[in-house]
């Protein structure tokens, strides 16, 4: 065994995500129903682990919000399951919150092909992550979030290191314990400890679920803090299909109490910009003034309405 192979073997052997789970030791002898019960019981541990990390997730959200306000981006870097989760979270933000493409992006070791077919060898070199960070044009305005259940994935470590060198804010999401993480390496580490997987080392399971929850929490909360919602409704969605057009009408109807026909009329007048249609109705203004009020309110619908009415709504 080469010295490099021995080092990797020893690193992996110590990882919590690579340990055997005593509760699933005899899983290969069980019927489907019992296997599913074990998986389900283990999955119940995930949100509890994420809950303990909420203070750190909140720190990450504030970093992301400030970066976006200052013209920066949120960029995810991961490999395998972790990389795919980053790509998925980033790709869902434009249709959900109306973010411009490129504001939140996901990069995966091995490139686009790795989304559909494993390119496992691509994650073994720090320089691959560093190259992708440079190719992405990362600057000090951006936030780079590394995602790796093991914490040690070379591609992710290399990406975060290079981002830090370039002056970007750095985050890291891992499912190994916080005490195993040198927190000086990043601005914020998020470490939901989910314990050993039902199938040893299969981090597509509890670890993947935890990472998915954390990424959803970061981007959703950041978007709320950036004025992308009114109450608990998404109001900056893009009209990219018929379903979303009808959802926009329903949102306008729900918030303002107007009829289907009126919601359609106002949306048409507002070029299907839901925020503008809401301000037009709630503040009784035309499209031009709605746009002006929204600009003064930094994109927050509630604040724009209050500016016009002179009272809280």
What does the model show?
The chain is an alpha/beta fold. It folds into 2 domains: 11-225, 3-Layer(aba) Sandwich (Rossmann fold); 229-309, Helicase, Ruva Protein, domain 3 (Orthogonal Bundle), CATH 1.10.8. The protein is 51% helix and 9% strand. The strands form 2 sheets. A 5-stranded parallel sheet has the order 2-1-3-4-5, sandwiched between helices. Strand 3 (143-147), helix 7 and strand 4 (169-173) form a beta-alpha-beta unit. Helix 4 packs across helix 8 (206-225), helix 6 crosses helix 7 (154-165) and helix 9 packs parallel to helix 11 (274-283). The chain is globular and about 70 Å long. The relative contact order is 0.12. The mean pLDDT is 93. It catalyses: N-acetyl-D-muramate 6-phosphate + H2O = N-acetyl-D-glucosamine 6-phosphate + (R)-lactate. Its EC number is 4.2.1.126. Homodimer.
Architecture blueprint of SSEs:
Elements: H1 3-14, H2 32-43, H3 45-51, H4 54-69, E1 74-78, H5 80-97, E2 104-108, H6 126-135, E3 143-147, H7 154-165, E4 169-173, E5 188-190, H8 206-225, E6 229-230, E7 233-234, H9 242-256, H10 260-269, H11 274-283, H12 287-296, H13 301-309
Parallel strand pairs: 1-2, 1-3, 3-4, 4-5
Antiparallel strand pairs: 6-7
Short description:
This is N-acetylmuramic acid 6-phosphate etherase. This protein has 313 residues and is of the alpha/beta class.
């Amino acid at each position: 065994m080469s010295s490099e192979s021995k080092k990797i073997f020893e690193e992996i052997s110590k990882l919590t995500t690579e340990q055997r789970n005593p509760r699933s030791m005899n899983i290969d002898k069980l019927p489907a129903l019992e296997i599913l019960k074990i998986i389900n019981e283990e999955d119940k541990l995930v949100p509890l682990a994420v809950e303990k990390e909420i203070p750190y997730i909140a720190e990450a959200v504030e970093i992301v919000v400030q970066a976006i306000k200052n013209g920066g981006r949120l960029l995810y870097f991961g490999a395998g399951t972790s990389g795919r989760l980053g790509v998925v979270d980033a790709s869902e933000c434009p249709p959900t919150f109306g973010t411009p493409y490129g504001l939140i992006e996901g990069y995966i070791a091995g490139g686009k092909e790795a989304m559909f077919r494993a390119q496992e060898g691509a994650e073994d070199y720090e320089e691959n992550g560093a190259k992708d960070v440079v190719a992405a044009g990362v600057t000090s305005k951006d936030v780079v979030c590394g995602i790796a259940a093991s914490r040690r994935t070379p591609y992710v470590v290399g990406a975060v290191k290079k981002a830090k060198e370039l002056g970007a804010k750095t985050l890291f999401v891992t499912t190994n314990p916080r005490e195993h993480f040198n927190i000086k390496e990043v601005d914020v580490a998020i470490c939901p400890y989910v314990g050993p997987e039902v199938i040893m080392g299969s981090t597509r399971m509890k670890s993947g679920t935890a990472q998915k929850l954390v990424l959803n929490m970061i981007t959703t909360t950041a978007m709320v803090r950036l004025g992308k919602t009114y109450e608990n409704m998404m109001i900056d969605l893009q009209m990219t299909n018929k379903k979303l057009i009808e959802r926009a009408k329903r949102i306008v109807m729900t918030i303002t109490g107007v009829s289907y026909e009126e919601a359609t009329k106002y949306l048409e007048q507002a070029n299907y910009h839901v925020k503008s249609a809401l301000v037009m109705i709630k503040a009784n203004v035309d499209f031009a003034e709605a746009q002006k009020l929204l600009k003064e309110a930094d994109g927050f619908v509630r604040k724009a309405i209050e500016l016009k009415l002179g009272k809280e709504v």
